Amino acid sequence: MIISGVFTAVVTILLWILSQILVLGFCPRHSHFKVGLFLYGLSFVGFLVWEWPTSWLNLLNGGLLHILFYCTFMEFYYYIDRPITLRILVEARKNLNRVLDINKLHQTYDLKYMIQRRLKSLVASGYIAEKNANFYLTTKGKIFAKIFEKGSKIFGVIR
Amino acid sequence: MKGIFLSFGAFCFLIPVSIVAVRSYAGKKYFRPLIGAFVIAAFFYAFLFYCLPSDLGFLTKGWMVADQRLDFINGFLLLFLLFHSYWDAVYTSFFTGFSTKILIQMLRKEGHSLNVEELIKMYQGSQSGNPVIDGRLQNLVRGSYLAPGISGEYQLLPKGNFFAVFTRTFQKILHIGEGG
Questions:
Q1: What is the least distance, in Å, from the CA of B30 to any CA of chain A?
Q2: Is A96 among the domain residues?
Q3: Are B131 and A68 in contact (CB under 8 A)?
Q4: How many CB atoms lie within 10 A of CB A87?
Q5: What is the 3-state secondary structure (H, E, C) of A24-49?
Q6: CA distance linking residue A44 with residue B2, whole number of Å
Q7: pLDDT tens digits for B120-142?
Q8: Helical (H) or strand (E) element with B86
């Protein structure tokens, strides 16, 4: 009974990934998340249409898997997008003799540049705002910062 | 439905277990206690699945999966996917995230405000003045991804080459750019 929902969830998620591969190349980098989310919405509707009519159990299970596959894929997306560690390896591979040019790396990843880049991204996401060269937490930023601090404390991680 | 219910039950059990595991772990490789917590939760899920009745005492026939093995595997898959999302969320939010750390530093500062120079001061301290890169290089050497040379350069090892190719391939397929 639930096999059909699992199968449809897998197929519609794979179609969503394929659609991202085909479409994202034509979209500006900053719109990737929104476009991906829109395509995901279409894929979820596709799942519902494909399965309907079916039992509530099948719909619930398949829908749940569909959402969790989406989360897992997005995590994979950010695993290869964000980590500086992976960028270091990619930089090392660029040289013919596979030797990492440490000076070039420090130029690319100058601490000031890295911090400014993150600050820019945090401003764009609405967590912080800039005023007279100072960055301060917005209401949204305060709420999330408190959650992050509390979470770190619960896990006993010093940051 | 039994598998779905029990996977959520096991996931709720996993959260306090992971907190205890991370709190009792002295190192910085937090994935170790998290994997340990997942293994405990997986055994807990399997134990409950085999001990409890198919209807869990309240499920009607329409909400029950006839094939017990399929129900078990489906529930286990859900538990694994839940754990994976949980892992990612706690790692970037509470353990290591660069952006989340900046937000926490701002929260601790009077007026919840910082400038670039103050942030740089917080992160400086290593020999090269860039602890973000230094820490990662040390980890890559420790993990046999890179080997340090005599004149300060780093040689890419086969394991590092594999991950570099893997990363670059998927970055190209998904139009991500160079990342980092």
A1: 10
A2: no
A3: no
A4: 21
A5: HHHCCHHHHHHHHHHHHHHHHHHHHH
A6: 24
A7: 888 776 566 677 788 888 889 99
A8: helix B68-90
Interface probe with A: pick from B116, B145, B170, B172, most Cβ of A within 10 Å:
B116
Q: Is the Cβ pair A115, B102 closer than 8 Å?
A: yes
Nearest to A136 among B101, B113, B177 (CB): B113
> From the list B98, B104, B165, which residue is nearest A118 (CB)?
B98
* A10 at interface of B, judged by CB pairs closer than 8 A: no
Q: Is residue A92 part of a domain?
A: no
Q: Are residues A77 and A7 in the same domain?
A: yes
pLDDT by residue for chain A (159 residues), tens only, comes to: 789 999 999 999 999 999 999 999 898 888 888 999 999 999 999 999 999 988 899 999 999 999 999 999 999 998 888 888 888 898 888 887 888 888 878 877 788 888 888 899 899 989 999 988 899 999 999 999 999 999 999 999 988
Residue A91 maps to a domain: no
Does A74 share its domain with A128?
no
Residue-number span of the structural domain to which A73 is assigned: 2-82
A124 vs B: CB within 8 A: no
**Amino acid, single-letter form, for residue A105:** L
Q: Among A34, A49, A82, identify where a domain stops.
A: A82
pTM: 0.87
